Amino acid sequence: MNLPEFQTLNVTHDRGVLQVRLNRPEVRNAMSLAMVHELIKVMDWVTENALRAVVLRGEQGHFCAGGDVQDMVKARMQAAEVTQADPYAALNRAFGHLLQKAEHLPAVLIVVLEGAVLGGGLGLTAVSDVAIAHQQAKFGLPETGLGLIPAQIAPFLVRRMGLTTTRRLALLGLRFDADEARRCGLVHEVAMTDEELQTMLEHTLQQVRQCAPQANRVTKQLLLSSPNEAELDAWLDKAAKHFSEAVRGAEGMEGTMAFMQKRPATWTQD
């Protein structure tokens, strides 16, 4: 499993876990279009190589300060030169494609949040499976205060935090702390120190390694496709089929046997 080379990311792989660090610390890891494309490449690589987990965080004390203003300037220049395409829409939609891929990533997506977690950084948090924040992390939706809108992240934030909370945060352009992020449901755990943050991450990865990889992938797929009432019968029929496949499959047989024999299953890792 050879990793691609990246210009805006630091990426390492160990025992089924990919550690991805946003690496533009001079702009608090603001997301350029190049970084978006590289993150999409990461998501595709993870999908092809069936990893267990991806840990996403930022270099040098910040997660992500949102979109890169320089890309907006470039898009404005392109808009003045090109009449057929809409570079603003293309720039914005690229980030939406990334969020879609990240949300449906078959591996467990864990975000570690420090420093600035703004705009698009909130979007990445909203599509994670597990979000761990440092007490001093600062969250915000500054778009409307800049005359912009949180176009691509809006539906993911609504699903994560609910409509009324997202409306308040977005329409007031609010900044808020890690405790508020936890109360909103955006973040799951808050660490008081760097050491506690690392301990929480290691504990989360330890728990991931106790779960069967294929069972996790199918469970995540089912959870993300949870139906409305009109679709419930068909969804439950599909879930029953997946359950039957799991019971009959290698993981189900091994997990049942390990439980009966009071031993760890073969997929567990220390």
Alpha-carbon distance between the two ends = 22 Å
Give me the side-by-side strand order of the main sheet. Answer: 1-2-3-4-6-9
Count of individual domains: 2
DSSP helical segment count? 11
Could you give me the name of the CATH homologous superfamily of the largest domain?
2-enoyl-CoA Hydratase, Chain A, domain 1
Q: Tell me the series of helices and strands, N- to C-terminal.
A: EEHEHHEEHEEHHEHEHHHH
Q: What does the largest sheet look like?
A: 6 strands, mixed
**What name is given to the CATH topology of the largest domain?**
2-enoyl-CoA Hydratase, Chain A, domain 1
Oligomer: single chain
What helical percentage do the residues reach?
40-55%
| Dominant shape | globular
Roughly what is the average pLDDT, rounded to an integer? 92
Tell me about this structure.
With 270 residues, the protein is α/β, with parallel strands linked by helices. It folds into two domains: 9-208, Alpha-Beta Complex (2-enoyl-CoA Hydratase, Chain A, domain 1), CATH 3.90.226.10; 213-260. It contains eleven helices and nine strands. The protein has helices spanning 33-49, 69-81, 87-103, 120-126, 154-161, 163-171, 178-184, 194-208, 213-224, 232-248, 250-260; strands at 9-14, 17-22, 53-58, 108-113, 116-118, 130-134, 138-140, 175-177, 189-191. Strands 1-2-3-4-6-9 form a six-stranded mixed beta sheet, sandwiched between helices. A hairpin with a 2-residue loop joins β1 (9-14) and β2 (17-22). α1 packs parallel to α3 (87-103). The longest helix has 17 residues, at 33-49. The radius of gyration is 20 Å and the shape is globular. The two termini are 22 Å apart. The model has no long low-confidence stretch (mean pLDDT 92).
